[in-house]
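ok so i was messing around last nite and threw this chain in just to see what happens. nothing serious, just curious
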Amino acid sequence: MKTEVLRLDGSDQDLSKLRYAARLLQAGAVVAFPTETVYGLGADARNLDAMAELARVKQRQDQKPYSLLVPSVRAAESACGGLSHVAKKLARIYWPGPLTLVVRKRGGGAVGMRLPEHPVTRSLLSQCGFPLAAPSANISGTRDPRSAEQVREQLEGQIPLILDGGEAWHGKASTVVRLDVEGPPQVVREGVLTADELLRTAQPTLLFVCTGNTCRSPMAAAFAAAALQGRADTQGQPYRVLSAGTSAQDGDGANPSAQAAMSEVDLDLRAHRAQAVQPHLLDEADWIFTMTRAHRESILMVMPECEERIRLLLESGADLADPASGSLAQYRLARDAIAQSLPAVLRAVTGSN
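result:
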């Protein structure tokens, strides 16, 4: 077998080359292509003959399953029968990208899946119409290839086609996180993404939002953090509590009157520093509590996908008035209204009082 190498250069001819690669994959062949991590080998995961050919090319002796490259989150859900809350959150934040999620399959077992970011891989998946079993494009035990030339050095004559899309962006494998086990997520392979970042992001996270992030939202966050201290969710993960403002100046301290009002209930805001609402904070939040309807609407205008995770802080649905520039008594009123909202917050977060 002669291995053909087709260079992808961004021209109109790329589509015909991708379609040719897809036809080979649909016929049960194994094809190499670039991803954002390293070069990968693809085979139709539904085709037993194609999977046997993939094992031959890789020279793998074990029965360890291959992870899948999927074209969309919907395809991932279809492949496993549904994603857990944590899996959906990590997919929301890191897909498309260099993260492989190992999740439970409905009916038993587990499957690793990744939605790639590289445009060549995305286009190839689109042309194929099915997920690809996709290990790195090398013989097992050797270095992961970063270029088409490195693939050809190892696999010349073993596969019919290599798509050459230039060097892989990262040159490092994806990070693999297991979500099919009891307890918190487990990082079983650290790759492009660090274990610390992923485990922090996976924590159940509350975000309180006001305007300047100097009084209402830090007061609410302080109450919630105190109530949730030492508690964990059903997977054993501790809660993370954040606050931000729709018009905050990063680094501002808490309002002195807010500090004084909270000190009366033994909560300390002196270390608080304001931060503006950012997309990454909204993505990481499992629950978003806003002080007013205007705050809620301003978030939804930018990120409407937050709608299922956002609610007003006060259970009554009323706005919590801004005490800014008011008397200490007004800050106390805001503090007490926030404290009264805490049982509803805890019910939303933990399912109990």
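not much to say yet. The longest helix spans residues 328-350.
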